[in-house]
Amino acid sequence: MHVHLVVAHPEKSSFNYALHCVAIETLSGMGIRYSESNLYADSFNPVAGHDDVIGFPDGESFNLAKAQRFALENNAFIRQIKHEQNKLKECDVLVLQFPLWWWSFPAILKGWIDRVLTSGFAYGEGATLKAKKVMYSITTGGAKNQSELDYYQAKIDGLYQDVFAFMGWEIIPPFIAHGVQQKSHQQRLDILASYTAHIQKKLTLAQS
């Protein structure tokens, strides 16, 4: 098994990034190969557009999906996109590590989705990327009651369905850390330990 980790948090001292570090430690301990994309450290450009494609015909109206298919057919994606797509080709499981901001992906991660999971490559007729397994690891601002927890869960389920279920990928249940800012040091350590157990359990099942 090969796991690709995409982390989308700007602060390496954050609890969110600590979860990413736990994933690396756990995978290493399990003997599972991994690769990673640290979007902020890599200065990943989240803006999809003309600059993603080399040689798109001048004078032709720009359509993102059309341009992406042109790039795929003519090996015309810029290096950054090719590099990210090659990582996806090689992995079996994708793990996205991110904070839930305004009930959605951070802009830099949404941009990664827009620019890397391209038409003809990840979705659409004749898509060349083999369907993978995907898991989210998320931190949130916290929930006061079960109703708010259910609301968070519905939003996160939607983020799965609207992207990866649409592409036909197998969804692994997410790991969600609610309200870590309000937790004690020991509680935070307990959450990190729980994430280790989550990875061990879910990826062992994913291998079977």
TrEMBL record:
Residue ranges annotated for the Flavodoxin-like fold domain, each copy included: 1-198
Any GO MF annotation of the entry: NAD(P)H dehydrogenase (quinone) activity
Pfam families (alphabetical): Flavodoxin_2
Gene3D superfamilies per UniProt: 3.40.50.360
Domain of life: Bacteria
Keywords in alphabetical order: Oxidoreductase
Cellular component GO terms, alphabetical: cytosol
InterPro entries, sorted: Flavodoxin_fold, Flavoprotein-like_sf, NAD(P)H_dehydrogenase_qn
Family as reported in the entry's similarity comment: Belongs to the NAD(P)H dehydrogenase (quinone) family.
Full protein name: Putative NADPH-quinone reductase (Modulator of drug activity B)
